[in-house]
Amino acid sequence: MNPYEIIQQHNLYTNDMLMWPNDRCVNNTLKDYNLTFTTPVTSGIGIGLIEISIYLVVGFILREECTSLKKMNILSFFWLLMTVLTGIWEFAFITQYKQVHDYALEFINNDTHVWTTEYDVSYVNPWKLSKIFYAEYGAHADREYIALDNHWSRVIEGSHAMLCGLFAVLALYFKSRSKNSLYVISATVSMSTQLMNSILYMAQYFFQMKDPNSVNYPSAEFPAGFALLARGFMYVNVFWTLMPLYVIVMEYVLYGKEWICCQLRENKHSSVYRY
Questions:
Q1: Average of per-residue pLDDT values in the chain
Q2: What is the phi/psi pair of residue 147, to 5°?
Q3: Domain locations in the chain?
Q4: In a 3-state reduction of DSSP, which class is residue 118?
Q5: Residue 21 pLDDT class (50, 70, 90 cuts)
Q6: What proportions of the chain, in percent to the nearest 5, are helix, strand and coil?
Q7: Contact status, residue 153 vs residue 142, Cβ threshold 8 Å
Q8: Residues 6+ apart with CB under 8 A from 165
């Protein structure tokens, strides 16, 4: 073996000695630690709480960034914002109605609920959230929401999204631009149609509960219980009845105060100029 071959063999041996420990450490690390990442999961209740938390955070940020929105009654502001979010959920419900229907049947057949079923946190996406919560509502509150041959639920949700949701967006936009008259008009349209929508919907629902041919007629398979306690999700409609009435009253009271103050200031200035 010539001197060149001896030097080359020595270098190869040295490189092997240097590289082998590092490779062994890497391999041991990969064996000791599972580097796969899984998306966190939580119950349907957790998904709902995360969604509401995001909604509240966004709302407070909007109020901080826009001083005009701070002048609104805080409950009125957040309910108008909730109406916008609801409009997104409703649009998603209508566009994926068949999927909602199929998932609701799983709840019925397995006697399960969204509240205790586990989902990954991607379900805070309003599109995904709409599917699972409308499925719960259709399975355990209002069966017409999963009736493929009946368009009543989609008419209710679609009209709410178009009228209430759209005018809620306009109301918040006009308020952010300090266009108070247009704000009051838009908020009134949004909340008035929401109130009427809710009254008509609940009246129809109570009529259906007395009709033996209705899917919502109480039965052993689909009980109502005392005061609809067996269909607890129906109580969400209390908010959609009382809150629009609250917003209408509060915003007219606040707008009335502003209008009276403006009139008094104008009268005062006109009196000064007169003399």
A1: 85
A2: -85, 115
A3: 41-274
A4: strand
A5: very low
A6: 80, 0, 20
A7: yes
A8: 83, 84, 86, 87, 88, 90, 190
Cα angle, residue 67 at apex, residues 65 and 68 outer, rounded to 5° = 125
**55 Cβ contact list (under 8 Å, min separation 6):** 81, 82, 85
Q: Using alpha carbons only, what angle is made at residue 241 by residues 238 and 245, rounded to the nearest 5 degrees?
A: 135
Q: Would you list the DSSP string of 47-90?
A: HHHHHHHHHHHHHHHHHHH-HHHHTS-HHHHHHHHHHHHHHHHH
* pTM over 0.85, yes/no: no
Q: What is the pLDDT of residues 59-106, one digit of tens each?
A: 999 999 998 999 889 999 999 999 999 999 999 999 999 999 999 999
Block residue for tokens 């709840």: 107
What pLDDT was estimated at residue 253?
75
If DSSP states are collapsed to H, E and C, what string results for 179-206?
CHHHHHHHHHHHHHHHHHHHHHHHHHHH
Q: What is the pLDDT of residues 42-61, one digit of tens each?
A: 999 999 999 999 999 999 99
DSSP 221: S
Question: What DSSP string describes 15-56?
Answer: HHHHHHHHHHHHHHHHHHS-------EEEHHHHHHHHHHHHH
Retrieve residue 57's tokens: 């955070």
